[in-house]
Design a protein that fits this description.
Helix content: 25-40%
Shape: elongated
Distance between the termini: 53 Å
Strand content: 15-25%
CATH class of the largest domain: Alpha Beta
Number of helices: 16
Number of domains: 2
CATH superfamily of the largest domain: Bira Bifunctional Protein, Domain 2
CATH topology of the largest domain: BirA Bifunctional Protein, domain 2
Structural class: alpha+beta
Amino acid sequence: MPISALPGFRDFFPEDCARRNQIVSTWRSVATRYGFQEFDGPVLESTDLYRKKNDAGAEILDQLYAFADRGGREVALRPEMTPTLARMVAAREKHYRKPMKWFCVSNFFRHERQQKGRLREFLQFNADIIGESSPAADAEILSLAIDLLRAFGFTAEHFVVRLSDRAAWMDFLASKGCDHAASLTALACADKLEREHPDKLNARLAPTGLTVEDLRTFIGQGSPQAFAPVMDALAARGLTGFVQPDLSIVRGLAYYTGVVFEVFDRSQTLRALAGGGRYDGLIHGLSDGAADLPAIGFGMGDVVLGHLIDETPAAAQRLQAALAPSLDIFVVIADEAHRPEALGIVQTCRELGLSTDFPLKPVKTGKQFQEAEHLGAQHAILVGQEWPLVKLKHLATRAEEVLDRSALVQKLKSCKLDS
RNA sequence: GUGGUCGUAGCUCAAUGGUAGAGCUCCAGGUUGUGGUCCUGGCUGUUGCGGGUUCGAGUCCCGUCGAUCACCCCA
């Protein structure tokens, strides 16, 4: 039996790699446009880094690729970026002016049963603003998430940001007399309102003194006062149409302290495209108090995004256009006697920064032109018996001109061949 | 971890329990130094793997591995 890739892990053949690179470069260019700086950390971390964060909920540890290395050290493949980010920030935050706007594009690993939109190894874009607690930072993060998706060709018809606020929830729950533990239980139930039977949820809610009806009433009030500053900032950017206040979003994690949000496709057929929120106490907790900075961030994975691109013609076409094969020059060797000179031309083209290809073995001229077409070449340079003259042909118009070597080089240099 | 569905050529898929096929891709040709189309020819299968029923299994049964969808969960 031949060995194939492990379940949930992917091979990236050239066409897959091109697609992935295009997604990554779109992420990078938008984040850079927003003034974010890229960082990265190690793929392998001490297992303790994840234990520390999750003393409350231990399921995460079950999904860790964790093992002992050769020295007996407990290590794990990173399942997310936030602990690494917190570690790095705590180690050197005094070096950086605030707010720190950092992003990364990294691969992550989770040992889960794979299904649509969820693999065991995936790529995720993460962006965080550290050291700024104002709603302006919340709006900046939300805008980035929106513009990231717009850069792929999506519009308000295709996706929506559902915006909620943990602080509003905690205030509400406190007003109902819930202590911290009861609040977490209530939030967990709120997260499942759409999926589980009310009876079952009411049973879970019993210790909190609340009912499903109480939660629904709170959610039903719509947009609380707390959203106003963020919504105003989004309105000033013209992005209101992408955001919908929705208190039913609570997110599973315990550490969120303020704004939380998830991005969904409008047709609601996929799982969340992106999600995140404010976590003002996490860096303090993870660093044992070495640093204490407010932060807000989110992640966007490549898997669900890829599904939505495939299902959205406008985005699929845009991606496809970016992936069309392209080559500046194909050097046609019409006379094998001049192969050495042709190689010289190839080298010159490449040194000028032009993507250039040529046949590695003798091939009939017709086949060479066919090959040039398949490779998406813009121009062909034909080297043959008339050497030292060569022909430069623009393949789209079939226009040819005869040039000597210096005229050719001049032409390649000056106009970059944009005929 | 639980349940449903599905595994046939590199890819997409056919084949009533009775001799395993097509399209695409790929490769080679279509006489002189010029094109995506077109024409001709060619390669590829222990039908995921292992058992069983049967005169005979791609087809039916069991197991196993994998894929997929849902549940669980989603940092």
